[in-house]
Amino acid sequence: MSFERLQDKIREMKNPTVAGLDPKLEYVPSFIVEEKMKQYGQTLRCAAEAIYEYNVGLIDALCDVVPAVKPQSAFYERFGFEGVEVLKRTVDYAKSKGLYVIMDAKRGDIGSTAEGYSEAYLGSVTIGETEVEPFGCDCLTINAYLGSDGINPFIKDCVARDRAVFALVKTSNPSSGELQNIVAGDRKVYNVVGDLLERLSKDTVDKYGYTCVGAVTGATYPMDIRDLRRRLEKTFFLVPGYGAQGGKAEDVQYAFDEYGHGAIVNSSRGIICAWQKTGKEGKDFGEAARDAAIAMREDLKKYITVV
Question: Cβ of 196: how many Cβ atoms within 10 Å?
Fold first, then answer.
């Protein structure tokens, strides 16, 4: 199963870190942007190609340090079809470097529309007699708050194609509690959703004991993570909110089981924007990202031991 492959990579590298590839144009060193402007003018293609060159440099610097990358589709879609094309190239390049790719698109719909999203990111489409994978990602983030109609189509492709999903459960944003912490009967809403995910995916358990449907659990709410870890023993966690959003290694430790398994912690700006603190005008952006990823790995090791 897909999370089995991810856990294998985490164990190999002793590093439960995923680098978020969320590149605003202002995050890209100016020398790259200026070079692309000379080639393409002040166009969407210029922005997209600058981001791609930036991503390639980041991936080259990180591929032997982190097991996974997580491109956020919105940061590419904002540049139109040129941005989406670069998103596909980024996925392909990351996979060529052996990285596990989590597409952060938070797709959520029902029926044939959910099937379409799943086919796009996890599955395939048939054109004539040829089967083609549009994106071929290892994993996709989805919105589980439409219920089983919005989850089961993704599970189908996960099982058929060795993929996985992370569904929103308890997110890291400040207003998440407005809905997710409401008490429904004897449970909070986020617990209702977590229980649903485990029930729907109960037949997909891998060698580590995790199903193909993981949960997004924000680092900014460590006690909620601890509650969910105790409750959802078969659910792999994606933990955003470390670093720039205020989450600490001390907080994210609760996402892991006793073997340091079952979770991966995301950092985006803290890694990809590390060059902004070195005073070298971005000439060292790859090196700075690598140093930041290593520092994060060592920080996590203070609280989490992967065996």
Answer: 17
